[in-house]
Amino acid sequence: MDSNDHDALPVVLSVSGAGKTYAEPVLADVSLSLRAGEVLALTGENGAGKSTLSKIIGGLVEPTTGTMRLGDAPYAPASRTEAEALGVRMVMQELNLLPTLSVAENLFLNRLPRVGAFSFGWIDRRKLRDDARHAMAQVGLDAIDPDTLVGELGIGHQQMVEIARNLIDDCRVLILDEPTAMLTAREVDLLFEQIHRLKSRGVALIYISHRLEELARVAERVAVLRDGRLVHVDAMTNLTSDQIVTWMVGRELGERIDLGVRKLGAPLLRVERLTRGKVVRNVSFDVRAGEIFGVSGLIGAGRTELMRLIYGADQKDGGTVALAATPGAPPTPVAIDTPADAVRAGIALITEDRKGEGLLLPQPIAANVSLGNIGSVARHGVVDARRENALAQKQIDAMRIRSSGPGQIVGELSGGNQQKVVIGRWLARDCRVLLFDEPTRGIDVGAKFDIYGLMGALAREGRALVVVSSDLRELMLICDRIGVMSAGSMTGVFERASWSQDALLAAAFAGYRSREALLHAPVTNEAGSL
Fold first, then answer.
1. Distance, first Cα to last Cα, the chain
2. Cβ(427)–Cβ(368) under 8 Å?
3. For residues 203 and 40, is the Cβ–Cβ distance under 8 A?
4. Which residues pair with 34 in a beta bridge?
5. Helix residue spans in 357-500 (DSSP H)
């Protein structure tokens, strides 16, 4: 679509001077227009204001300043329900589904078909299933029974159910907030096909994503937010990914990062023949003081399970975890049967699911930071609020957490700042070994580089870091060595000077090829003959 074609399209939604202030301004003076049949990419760092702006448009948040128009009429929804009734719908990262109800019931929860004129509450189950199958077919869920409970679906399928729910009935504006974060490649393709259908019907879309390669596939224009302000709007074809990143963070980010001068010491952590069923099989490696050791592999290779075994969150079938009692001393086995044992030994786990396992989202930053440090802030079993706030403020300053202070609710923070709160909790405890499981998943490129810089600072202090990541380029950027998991085994450990992307990928598939060869090997008798 060229600029003349774009300008000829009718404006569906306009936002003028939108702003929102909580304890401090999070959005200021944002003006945008959205035209029928176009996709506007909305991007920016975590905390830039993307979610706040989209929630204002979707009726979930009331703006402090500014006005909106939907078509030719003033638009000021008092709730999400009111916005949806006017044709403005939003698919959020936090799914709006009821896991104990079926897929069909979730799709038509507020408009369940009734039996006859005098139904007395009876639901027409046949019509409900037929309507649900039609809605599900639009997003490629044909193979799923509409009577399946949503809680029994994987997160990717749940995301597609949420998208299907928002495509039912009249939709004039559709907001997609990180819609592909949990989807497979096939599901992403199905979603993009649906987006193209919606555009041909004249639906206007706002597409929020950190995955810049996706934006080029679906968006006509891109709007970049930074620190709550709109800093750039342009046609997608006029910008490269590097230029978008520069607008996002206000500076250029190269493909290299300086983690500072580090001196690698003797092994601080040693894992020997760690085993749990078939998910982790005889894994051995060590990590030196001051080293960043990466763990790569395909999904399901056993990376997260390995971290959980080291941390004592799962019970091992065999093997040992050893730690050096003092710098330079040889690692000696320690009994780690529970996470409490690991914490006492000086091992911390920054989980991949920060919202479900790493944080108390309704609680303030102070409570989350002190969660692993109660002994330092409590007296006689009672938490001293002054000590708790002081501890939290120290981590806020050290981690550069964007917040209004220790009292701000963690659920109000951006993903990157939430991740910093999790890390800050363990830094306050001074753990010597830090296990990072997907530490930058779901956070923007600027926040990623903040986390990388933090990892470099921790390594310079002589701590041992183990980093699991699905992003191979990330591991190659920050790690000293990379161990590759494949089918539960560690198939290789690569030094920075000798690794290549091809070699790392080959190692990631090696365990599966070996297992396939064993499954198809000829059967022999005890004498070795066929």
1. 66
2. no
3. no
4. 13
5. 365-370, 374-377, 385-399, 415-427, 445-460, 472-478
CB atoms within 10 A of CB 90: 23
Domains 1-87+171-254 and 267-346+432-530 share a fold: yes
Stretch (H or E) spanning 245 = helix 241-249
Domain ranges of the chain: 1-87+171-254, 101-169, 267-346+432-530, 353-430
Per-residue pLDDT of the chain (530 residues; tens, 9 = 90+): 555 565 677 999 999 999 998 767 889 999 999 999 999 999 887 667 888 999 999 999 999 999 999 999 999 999 998 998 999 999 887 677 888 999 999 888 877 777 665 555 678 888 889 988 988 887 778 888 999 998 888 777 787 888 888 877 778 999 998 887 767 677 788 788 888 888 888 999 999 987 778 888 899 999 999 878 999 999 999 988 878 878 876 655 455 577 878 889 999 999 999 999 989 999 999 999 999 999 998 767 899 999 999 999 999 999 999 999 988 899 999 999 999 999 999 999 988 777 777 788 899 999 988 887 787 888 877 888 999 999 889 888 887 888 889 999 998 887 778 888 888 888 777 789 999 998 887 676 677 788 888 899 999 999 999 999 887 888 988 999 999 999 899 999 999 988 988 888 888 888 765 554 444 444 433 333 22
Residue type, 202: G
Gyration radius from the chain CA atoms: 26
383/367 Cα distance (integer angstroms): 10
Strand order in the sheet with 73-74: 25-35, 11-21, 65-70, 73-74
By CB atoms closer than 10 A (0-12, 13-18, 19+), residue 40 is buried
The bridge status of strand 433-437 relative to strand 382-383 is unpaired
Architecture of domain 1-87+171-254: 3-Layer(aba) Sandwich (3.40)
Quote the pTM value: 0.58
Closest CA to 480 of 262, 329, 324, 302: 262
**Could you tell me the two tokens for 245?**
């990143």
Distance CA 507, CA 504 (A): 5
Q: Which CATH number fits domain 267-346+432-530: 3.40.640.10, 3.30.230.10, 3.40.50.300, 3.40.50.1100?
A: 3.40.50.300
* β-bridge pairing 318-323 and 267-276: antiparallel
Burial label for 111, CB within 10 Å (0-12, 13-18, 19+), is exposed
Distance in angstroms (rounded) separating the CA atoms of residues 299 and 508: 10
382 forms beta bridges with: 379
Tell me how far apart the alpha carbons of residues 37 and 200 are, in angstroms, rounded to a whole number.
Answer: 6
